[in-house]
Amino acid sequence: MNKYLSSNLKKDLPAGLVVFLVALPLCLGIAMASGAPLFAGILTGIIGGIVASSISGSQLSVSGPAAGLTVIVFSAIASLGSYQTFLLAVVIAGFLQILLGILKAGIIASYFPSAVIEGMLAAIGIILILKQIPHAVGYDSDFEGDEAFFQFDQNNTFSALFEAMNKVNVAAVIISVLSLIILIYWPRLKKLSMIPAPVLVVAIGILFSFLFQSTSFALTPDHLVTIPVVNSFGEFLTLFTTPDFSQITNKSVWTVAFTIAIVASIETLLCIEAVDKIDPLKRTSPTNRELLAQGVGNITSGMLGGLPMTSVIVRSSVNVNSGGKTKMSAIFHGSLLLVAVLFIPLFLNQIPLACLAAILLVTGYKLARLELFKKMWHHGKDQFIPFVVTILAVVFTDLLKGVAIGMVVGIFYILRTNLRNPYFYKIERNGDKKIITIKLAQEVSFLNKAAIQYTLNNLPAEADVIIDGTESRFIDKDVLEIIDNFKHSAYSKATIVKLVNIKEYYEIPPLKEMKLSSSGKAVL
Question: Pairing mode, if any, of strands 522-523 and 515-516?
Fold first, then answer.
């Protein structure tokens, strides 16, 4: 056990440090975009890293404030009238998530099409690249963590890029280019790679920031990480805020709570599915336990003054790409956020955003690598089209809307496949007589009704038809009715129909009989 822990800690501690460096500006940016106190963003990252990760069954996902909730949080704080009332909604949302976990709502994650999840990952990679280029060239006016196409500063992703090109800072460009070179080539130096490249990048970024101070293109505070500075532990305690429980009967609070619980749960389940896909060890995370973990995390966050949290794909991807092996990397990142606020805020405020942008650019490239597009193309258009549609939809809207659009397209191709494959069809000859065998699939649902009806109505006349249900564990009653009607009307075509092992009624198999297919999806 000690050997196992030590071997993993060698990977988890550096990975946790890199996730911490990336999470720090994201937590602050999301808090700012949400109209919440800056400390609330860091507090949510601390709780997500320590509390949620400790309970979670996922080894690589990282929880914290989510960009996908910023619009909901911003409007909720405004409509509820006070931040304390909003915190009550966050606490209630946490209890609702625990209820969803108890009710085993996590099973929903098993029904996200693989092509859509792959598309979501690639889209996040493209968004990271597009959103971090401005920071890499020294244009840091937009909100860090704003992943939507239409930004809070009235720009969109592409207009922000054009604006950034007109406001290039030479020092930021030098730092980001040097950082990219280190991130790409440093790991190839085996004897020196024991020092993680992202840590070296941050150290060199701070060094160059000092070197450029006396030049005409010195970095300004806008180009650096900015976290709240507390001068004592007592001052630190004053940053916490508690919910206003007197508003427990306010209907608007409950409406916000239900909205946060549903949206946060969906984002979390999407992230868990995505992280499992990029996990080198291909582990499967328990989704119901994840909902419980997120619920406890949101209750804790709401009670102390934080924002609602989810499992977050950007930080989780950085964790995977930095070599994280177990949940200790996420817990370490949360612990570092706490230590940073208490003891070293002035030091961290010297980190250039350009070197952090370089880390995220490399992460984005790995998520949206060209090999992934080639792989999805070779899997066929029923995989490639939902994959591409999801990418475009996520990039040009936001995560939830984009995935929803991708799901619609993905489900369309799944239904089309189901409609075509409810049975095995074989024609044999016995002299001049045709013998047609229709062997039904393991599960024949209502979705297969149209295909089976079309086939039966278009069978040649004067044939012997055998409909074999030996392999079928479930046949929908509408399909049974079609088969029965065909049998009784077949005499008009001089057709003889024989039913093999087809029962009059089938019960729907319970969920406990479900198992995972080789692709990780739930099947009957």
Answer: antiparallel
State the pTM of this model.
Answer: 0.77
**Ramachandran area for residue 309 (φ above 0: left; ψ -120 to 50: alpha; else beta):** beta
Geometric angle at alpha carbon 327, from 324 and 329, rounded to 5°: 50
Q: What pLDDT sits at residue 518? A: 36
> What 8-state DSSP symbol labels residue 510?
P
- List, for residues 31-70, the tens digit of each pLDDT value: 877 889 989 999 999 999 999 999 999 999 999 998 878 8
pLDDT tens digits, 350-379: 999 999 989 989 988 988 999 999 999 998
What is the distance, to the nearest Å, from the Cα of residue 132 to the centroid of all Cα atoms in its chain?
A: 19
Give the pLDDT of residue 515: 41
How buried is 437 (Cβ within 10 angstroms: 0-12 exposed, 13-18 middle, 19+ buried)?
Answer: middle
Report how far residue 215's alpha carbon sits from residue 245's, in angstroms, rounded to the nearest whole number.
Answer: 54
Cβ-contact 203, 175 below 8 angstroms:
no
Closest CA to 164 of 209, 129, 132: 132
CA distance linking residue 467 with residue 470, whole number of Å = 9
DSSP code per residue over 74-106:
HHHHHHHSSHHHHHHHHHHHHHHHHHHHHTTGG
The alpha carbon of residue 400 and the mean position of all alpha carbons in its chain are separated, in whole angstroms, by: 10
Amino acid code (one letter) for 269: L
d(CA 61, CA 316): 5
R_g (Cα) of the chain, nearest Å: 28
For the chain, the helix, strand and coil percentages under 3-state DSSP, each to the nearest 5:
65, 10, 25
Neighbouring-strand partners of residue 156: 150
DSSP structure string for 422-437: SEEEEEEEETTEEEEE
CA-to-CA distance for 328 and 340, rounded, in angstroms? 18
Closest of 177, 176, 169 to residue 215, by C-alpha? 169
Q: Is the pLDDT of residue 174 over 60?
A: yes
Which has the closest alpha carbon to 327: 3, 4, 12? 12
Whether the Cβ atoms of residue 409 and residue 389 lie closer than 8 Å to each other: yes
pLDDT in tens, 207-263: 999 999 888 888 988 899 888 788 888 888 888 999 999 999 999 999 999 999 999
Phi, psi of 292 (to 5 degrees): -60, -45
pLDDT digits (tens, 9 = 90+) for 13-28: 999 999 999 998 888 8
Q: What is the mean pLDDT of the chain?
A: 87
| Contact (CB, 8 A) for 87 and 255 | no
Rounded Cα–Cα distance for residues 45 and 341 (Å):
12
Cβ-based neighbour number of residue 360 at 10 Å: 22
Strand 423-430 relative to strand 522-523, pairing: unpaired
Helix axes 399-420, 449-457, angle to 10 degrees: 30
* pLDDT surpassing 70 at residue 193: no
Q: Rank 81-95, 202-216, 309-323 by mean pLDDT and report only the highest.
A: 81-95
